[in-house]
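Sample A.
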Amino acid sequence: MAKIGQALDLKDLIAEFPNASRSDRVKGIMRVLQKTYQHETLQVTGPRLKTRRAMMDEVMESAALKKRLKEIAKEQNISIEAAENRAKKNLKEICSDIRFTLIELWNYFLSWLFNRFYDGVQVDQSGIREIKRVAKDSPIVLVPSHKSHVDYLIFSYVFYHNDLSLPLVCAGNNLSFWPLGPVFRRSGAYFIRRSFAGDPIYAASLKAYVAQLMHDRTFQEFFIEGTRSRSGKLFPPRTGMLKMMIEAYLEDKDIPDVYFIPASIDYERVLEEGSYLDEVQGRKKERERFWDLLHLPKFLRRRYGKVYLQFAKPISLKAALGKRSAELLGDEAALHQFTKDLAWNIGDAINDVTTLLSSALAATALLYPKAKSTTSKEIHAKCEILQKISLVSQPRITEALDKNFHLSIQESLNQMVASGVIQAHGEAEERFYSVPENHRLALEFYKNRGMHSLADAALVQVCEPQHRQAAKDLLQLEYYFSEDLWTKYSELPPWISDLIRPTLEAYWLALVTTSKGNFKKIEEWLLLRKILDRGQLLLLKGELEYPESLSRFTIQNALIQLTEWGVLQHHAKELGPRGRKVYSPGASDQRREECRLLLETLLKK
């Protein structure tokens, strides 16, 4: 691999040493050239590679980890040696073990695989150039949306082919299964548990490892949603990993800055669509297994369209902190609030660069306003309206939508017919489409991938002025609304409000099912089952209009929001028989009534 760095003007270099002797000037210029070379090299190769054992030893020797382990040993009344042994065991479970020989093999395999799966990977090259600019002087942390397990592979593949050091990827330990776990670990993954509440030694071990990576200026990658989005929407941000990185930066004065790179990855079709639909409907997520690879030939028989990678402007942690570094180190509440604000800013940035797909417009036009069937002409006309509304938010759009709008929409419709999500009737000019009731949830997944550019308009249309702020607060876990959404639109079709009515129905369903008297204390999975079962009954009665309102993930968000408002109580220190959180009715009857009135007003019940 050969890379040409930025050109340096000899006249400018000489001018930096106006009063130096000739020999001193030559030495000074040589130092500048050497430093520039090191920066260019670091951007491509990353820091000096350490063995897994050397990395673990270095982390165990860190003063911060030693201090924390002594505190924990005292709190738990165990020996320091016992605490250190547990920390070493944790690090063995966590640490990456990257091998560049394996990276080369991955390159050949992924080149073949992506050519079989996809019709191309479209990369935001201006974003790549900006990453290269900031990566010369500071470590970067790639923070992408999370749509598929393929995300891990595509971002590393794109970095490799754009002369950027591969990021070490923070992955859930559900992917550490044999035999692929060791392969992923040697490819740059480090594994963390989904939950480690109540295990302070594990938390301290992970934090020390992340801090060492940042100190070494290693590129990293983590998914701020914490898990893959099964609904098509961008999930609310989680703050655990982000907080660790902020603390590491505040505690290590040798780190000049850290740049977070919000990014969006968007697929015309996602490999896991079938399993996602099962989970949306409440079925249990299956743990990844080696035997799942036996299904690979089935996937290879299909094509999944294009993949789009977009990058937002890098966010400097140093600039975000300003002069608050010392204050935040000593104030846990202030640090928590700063982390939360930064997490939402990163989420906003991801939302802003999410690609608008033709399948999202076509699915939305098929679903709303709800009808038994829709003609091809009506669908194309509604898609034109939807695109016009979407462009107000200035989303990234595909080249196909930009240059061949109606052809792109028609291809999406044809693909949905071929996959059995919708049904086509008639021929040519007389063609019309219908959506079976039991397929509306599947189509909702496609529609949700366009809500980043349509949610503002839908909220504006559903709200009377006096309910605007309350409705926005209610749905804050569902959509990233703009600050200026109330002034963005002059005229909207009435049916645009239908786009968020299923979400409002899901929240109403969660509220009425969790009213006092319906239960006393219940584990989350059982409560979700109870809500979904009642929803099915209310659909049959006609009290709910949209089958897509029965989405497990929307209802989970509703439970979180109702808990924040005191309508529900979450027993944080208590887990049910299956290890899930436990809920009971909250004490705030007034807030419950306010929520009910708001939802029924918005739904016009």
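Sample B.
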Amino acid sequence: MELTVYRQASKTRPDGTVVYKGEDTLPYADSQLIMVADGLGGAAAIRHTSIDKGLFEPDTLPDVLFKGVYDDWSEPSFLEYVKNSFFELYAVKDCYTANVNNIKKSGYFASRIVSAIVLHEFAYNKGISAENFFSALSREKSQEKKSEVIAKMGKHFMDVIAEKLRSIAKNANIIYESSYAGLSLLGTTLCAALIDDKGAEAEVLLLTAGDSRPYVWNEKDGLCQLVKDEERADGGMTNYIKANDGESFVIKSSYAKFRKPCVIFCASDGCFDSGSFLSPMAFEKTILEAAAESKSEKEMAAVLHDFFAENGRHDDSSTISMKFCGYANFDEFSRSAGRRLKAIEKEYISALPKLLTEDYISELERTSANESDLAAKIREAVGKEPAVINFCESFVKDEAEKLTGSDERIIKVSEQRTSAREGLTKLTSGFSEINDGSLSELEAAIGNVRTSDTEYSDIRSSIYSENLKKSAEKYWSENADKLIADITYGSGEYSPELVKAVKNTIEMVTAESDDLEKNAALQAELFEKYCTGYSKYMRGEEA
């Protein structure tokens, strides 16, 4: 059983054309090979404006790429994969240069060409097929000789990719454009696994470059990353495939074997670097939940696709290629995934329910970086207490009255109210007798007075409330520390209600701070415990 997940960001143009934005290639999976490649949208962000027009048609694209590079490229599964992997180009063939966002970057072409080169080698070079490679490896008696055979595979693919990548780029007119000086031509990662699972164990040859990751999973050990990311602390990669003149790269080759049943898969960083993952445990849990709620590998792939469509927006693409080894059927794997989920719940999440949803560690680091953060939290929380607000307002009522009385809006409506009253007085003083006409005038004048009184009252109340709030907030900002200190140490004369409110709030905020420290410490402990197993193969432990 195999599955692939390919989530790619896209945008629909007004004419209905769908423009895809990702640089990851179409993930590949068959009974012996799984592979992903993540084209570099940053380091290899060269936009290629003058590619060969034959690349826009699936029937002519293989000829453009491989003519003079390979003698034969007609093997059906190889040809189908290559054509499908460039499907984004076909959609924009009539508007490729109409908008800069339609023009594909160097990383886009790199991931697809490199995956095609790797697949062609395994399809046509029978000497490195899974059967022949692992047989040859088993015949070597010494570990030194075995290591030489493994290293030779890495060197072989490094040489083949370096040569073929440049030749194919020349065919397709994928050239280094001067306006993009300093960027990499055809930069991409690679993560491929050649697998033989015919025996009691699954044997695996890994070919990697960059930060796309190979993993193994089984119910007992959970998720394990197999190769370290080739990147610096700042996130920049120390090794990746590129076609720049005078620059080189390495294809790292490594070997492992795992007791079945197990799952072996490759993933691009658009999956495991999701902002919703605080730990690799969260990545494992996502995969297991998809398995547990699915009835087939196809359903599982769809669930994962939908998850990354929602939670993988930090990256334009999320790709996975997965092989199930030693399971009679998908249902057997799904039940195993369910049992592992229960184990994670019991061993980790039950100890800290929000272990994977609340970043206690980062929050503690943030607060610890500011020594006065706790005091600021206390000031903020205490200042929201009704008893404290009332206390502050009692000190600033006169100030609020003064500010309100001098407000231009109040002065204006006050003048309007005075004018209405004067108009009524003038009208009544001139009456010698009341008739229908004078009664109507009188009613109108009285209405004006009432309206102006209501407007004055409403506006004055609103402006006074604004001034009272602002003045109280200012008073609190200037006197908060003194009030808190007085109540904390029993100084000053304050009402019992105010003292109780302040003390309760201080206790609550302090308790929250203590809880954060405890939760952060426990979270770090649980993550470290999980990573003991997760990183064991990267530390050199035997599979």
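B remarks: The chain has two domains: 2-347, 368-515. Residues 157 and 338 are 39 Å apart (CA to CA).
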